[in-house]
Amino acid sequence: MFFSRLRKDIAAAQRNDPAARNKFEIWLTYSGVHALSWHRFANRLYRMHLKLLARMASQFAKFLTGIEIHPAAKIAPGVFIDHGMGVVIGETAEVEEGVVIYQGVTLGGTGKERGKRHPTIKKNVTVSSGAKVLGGFTVGEGARIGAGAVVLKEVPPYATVVGVPGRVVRINGEKTQDLIPEKDDPVMKEISLLRERIFELEERLDKFASWEETHAAPAAQQPAIQQNDTPAENAEQKGENHENL
């Protein structure tokens, strides 16, 4: 049983990594394959109710590979963890055959709730570098999660999800809007408000510029009239003022 699963893991690595040259090299050097083998050992201990030993085994595997997998997680044979540094897979997560997981991926929860709080990843899903899949929902078969995406809700089969929060942008290769919206995107809403504010300020600036053009000419002419007064006229005006006194 152990060796048949190991062969499937090695075959998955050879199938998904173009840099893989032969099975022996994969078995010796691929940290993802090592992490999965250690996880199966820890999972067996966990099911035997040796939970402390199981946790110790999983932490030792984390020290060796940089990949943290809870002993209770259910991972099918034939999963490929590429590079793997920083990968975290939670207690109630389920990963089916053919899934590809890149470095920095988190299959986690969103809080301290109990029960099913980690995602179920169906067959042939690709979870790209740095993606976070958080919650007890299902990612449908053949879906693709973009690098750095934060997925907080269920993903349809053969969908492509990108962004923060994750949005469905393609299904079966065809462009689409997010098919399962829960509420307005707060980022897009804020951007729309900022654009409206910018348009309002631009209109005010245009009105101010037009007002300045119409009132600047009379204001500029007044000093010119005062400068045209001759010294003699100024003296006569002062004399008249003196006589009046």
CATH superfamily (homologous) name of the largest domain: Hexapeptide repeat proteins
Helix content: 40-55%
Shape: elongated
How can the largest sheet be summarized? 7 strands, mixed
Please identify the top-level CATH class of the largest domain.
Answer: Mainly Beta
Tell me what the CATH architecture of the largest domain is: 3 Solenoid
What CATH calls the topology of the largest domain is: UDP N-Acetylglucosamine Acyltransferase, domain 1
Number of strands: 16
Q: Runs with pLDDT <50, length 5+?
A: none
* Number of domain modules: 2
Q: How far apart are the termini?
A: 123 Å
Quickly give the structural class: alpha/beta
How much β-strand is present in the residues? Answer: 15-25%
Characterization of the model:
With 245 residues, the protein is of the alpha/beta class. It has 2 domains: 2-181, UDP N-Acetylglucosamine Acyltransferase, domain 1 (3 Solenoid); 187-244. Helices cover 45% and strands 16% of the residues. It is built from 6 helices and 16 strands. The protein has helices at residues 2-16, 23-29, 31-47, 51-65, 186-228, 231-244; strands spanning 68-69, 74-75, 80-81, 88-89, 94-95, 100-101, 106-108, 120-121, 126-127, 132-134, 138-139, 144-145, 150-151, 159-162, 167-171, 174-175. The strands form 3 sheets. It has a 7-stranded mixed β-sheet. Strands 1-4-7-10-13 form a 5-stranded parallel β-sheet. Strand 14 and strand 15 form a beta hairpin. Helix 1 (2-16) packs antiparallel against helix 3 (31-47). The termini are far apart. The model has no long low-confidence stretch (mean pLDDT 82).
